[in-house]
Amino acid sequence: MKTPRVTARAHTNIALVKYWGKRDEDLIIPMNGSLSLTLDEFYTETTVQFDSKQQTDHLILDGVTQPTTRVTPFLDIIRNQAGITAGAVVTSTNHVPTAAGLASSASAYAALAAAASKAAGLTLNRQDLSRLARRGSGSATRSVFGGFVEWQAGTNDATSYAVPIDEHPTWPIRMVTVVVDRAEKKIGSRAGMQTVVKTSPFYQEWVKKAQADLAAIKSAIAAHDIQQTGAIAESNAMAMHALNLTATPHFTYFTAGSLTAMHCVEELRAKGIPCYYTMDAGPNVKVLCEEQHVAAILTALQAHFDKNDLLVAHPGPGVQIIREN
Ligand code: PMV
Question: Rounded to two decimals, what is the model's pTM?
Fold first, then answer.
């Protein structure tokens, strides 16, 4: 017996207030709430079909068969909820310009959660879909929604999920990605945040700051205040990256290219252009700004980076089922 074959599309998101540390490793309950912007340009499309003739799961990612080490435990959660035992065929494609090193677990697990739950016959509301996506990767919980999204930390599986803050922003906000390095990240987010929670003497200070940043950035976003929103996002990102240097062993995602991009943003700001940087678990730098300043920012960055390594993104939509047959 085969279930319907369902395809979902989910967009990646970039956190302006970061999630960096879990209170529950298994259920992926974060230490602090976070807030992100879902982006339209980068997304994953994933097709899932369960087939009772299949003993095991099969994963094809961008045309290449991959191990199912992380996918099978995630599908087991769905199989349990749906009361089925069939193996699944999962076919996933990342739509990121020219392998820019931006393939994201956020869009991957949000798309997988939506496609697999639907194929398995579950009807989940968006809150439950967000809770499910969270089990694959923390940041995926936010990609269920479009625009500005808050992940309410909660304390357990039932209370930890994302909520939309402004799904269709009328604010002409943009995110310029500077592709500093296309290589795979050396320290994954999972391992990085685990080391920090266990060993940084400043971890509790981070949690306090993130909570304060979250409250403040929500007011700044509601007021469409780029200076405030950007300043909070940049400060929050730097605190997260500073924390990594206080872990044992210490580590950093910064490279020479990251610093070049950040200096360039600071110079633009000194000239009166409101633009602000953030970074995640990798060397690429993302610059938050308004549409009217995109051209000047690209011109300045082009003095240091190839034009093809500068990608401009708009706010994007939440997860959608795009095909079912
Ligand atoms: O969900 P993960 O395991 O990919 O972790 C995401 C961590 C950051 O991107 C650095 C921050 C965030 O909130 O997305």
Answer: 0.97
